[in-house]
Specification:
By secondary structure, the chain is mainly alpha-helical. It is about 90% helix and about 0% strand. Helix 1 packs parallel to helix 5 and helix 2 runs antiparallel to helix 3.
């Protein structure tokens, strides 16, 4: 039975399946953080704050809007699952089905294989044409995290097999 628990845990990691209570908390947290970001940009605009880079205020406001949107979508998804017990049962069975888990894991692996090289190309172009380190540093950190996590997860899953 230990293998069954590992499959469910692995599925939860890749699908970000979380309990209903934690899902609602996460959804509300995203909405609140997004609203805070939007209001922070508005408040800083009222006091004529000068941003370190040209479009940083738009990026922060856009991130806040995206967080609000994603949080609201997650809340709507939780609501629809709660309202329809038959659908909730189907989702629970689908999340535990080994074939579906395998398909999702392969899709996630393929998506990473496609996105990582594209991100490297974008990073190279950004690095060559950027004027400051502020524009390339976040992407550098993201790429390092992606590469290290890929190596660590590959090593972990090879040991498990």
């Amino acid at each position: 039975m230990k293998g069954d628990d590992e499959d469910v845990t692995q599925s939860k990691i890749f699908r970000f399946n979380i309990s209903e209570t934690n899902g609602i908390r996460l959804s509300w947290a995203l909405v609140i953080i997004g609203i805070v970001l939007i209001f922070a940009v508005a408040a800083l605009a009222l006091v004529d704050y000068t941003w370190p880079t040209e479009n940083l205020d738009s990026a922060v406001a856009g991130t806040g809007t995206a967080l609000v949107f994603v949080g609201m979508l997650m809340l709507l998804a939780q609501r629809s699952i709660r309202k329809n017990p038959q659908y909730a049962k189907e989702v629970a069975i689908s999340n535990k089905d080994e074939r579906n888990i395998l398909i999702r894991n392969r899709a996630n692996a393929r998506a990473f294989e496609i996105v990582f090289p594209l991100t490297m190309v974008v990073y190279a172009v950004t690095f060559v044409f950027s004027d400051s380190i502020q524009q390339t540093l976040p992407l550098s950190i993201i790429l390092c995290v992606m590469a290290v996590s890929s190596l660590l997860l590959t090593r972990k899953y090879k040991k498990e097999m």
